[in-house]
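Q: Structure tokens for this one, please.
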Amino acid sequence: MGGQEVITVSVGVILQKEALLNNIYQSFKRMADKTVDRGPWTGCAVMFLQSLCPGVNLLSLYKDREQGKFIVFKVIKLTLTDSAGGLGGYEILKVHDADPFLGVEVKFEDVAACQQFLESYSSGAVRQSLSQHACRLLALSQEFTVETQLKASTHILDLYLDKLELCLQHIHLSQPERLRDEEIDHLEQQLQTQALRPAPQSTPVTQEESPVPSNSFKFQNKVFEDRMLTATDVQSFSNGVGRQWKHVGRALGKSCRALKGPAIDNLAYEYEREGLYEQAYQLLSRFIQAEGRAAKLSRLVKALEDCKLTSLAENILDIQPRE
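A: Here is the predicted structure, written as tokens:
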């Protein structure tokens, strides 16, 4: 009898511990699932960057050259815009020397933006975006590769990327200890000034412009050869469009029956759990499947123009941006 009592008590203790652990997990999960509608959500993470490309030192560029500082900041800003699903939900607080790394402290103000960033980081899309923007803005002739590390307080999030809720919890618990750095304010203003700068007026041409060939299209006064969309186009679109995928889908739907009516909302519902990348991927895949040979690059670029996503169109067309 005494042995049975010991076994009963031991089982009871184990069950109590399991219940306690389950309560802790559920509280973590509720914190991770919290949205803006239920209350404010903030958190802080630091992304460390180190170039693995010979002759390109991000830390030296940021520290030693005024123009280099702005270009590196622009690369970081464009990458965050791509990976967090737009311009909102986060802000850069400080870029600092973490030799040999360049440290980027980011405050997240929207759990959805933070989750999208983590998914992009985990999939390698952040590194890909960094590489693409750095190659274009630094005018590199070679492929740019970068080593990254993501931390929240003392926690290295690279070790937990398969546990999204835990990463969100660590970021939420790591509250920012400073306001945005004055240097970042200056760089943000410089970026806005560049974006608002009017394009130079072209001189009037007396002769008629050459007609665009039937197998080509014009974008930003340049002629591009039209072609069917490729897997690379679909990947670039899915990585960069973020939350704007629905708007692009509706623009494509003006001339694609498969994307009319409730089709866009049905895609959003069907692939909600997989995230924004998969929703955008399925959108363009459905467009290609429905349109076949008519699923041309020109139609996607036109839809991106209509949605004011010209930088994404430039990425897909691999256009060197104007500085």
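A few notes: The first strand starts at residue 43 and ends at 51. Residues 2-33 form the longest helix (32 residues).
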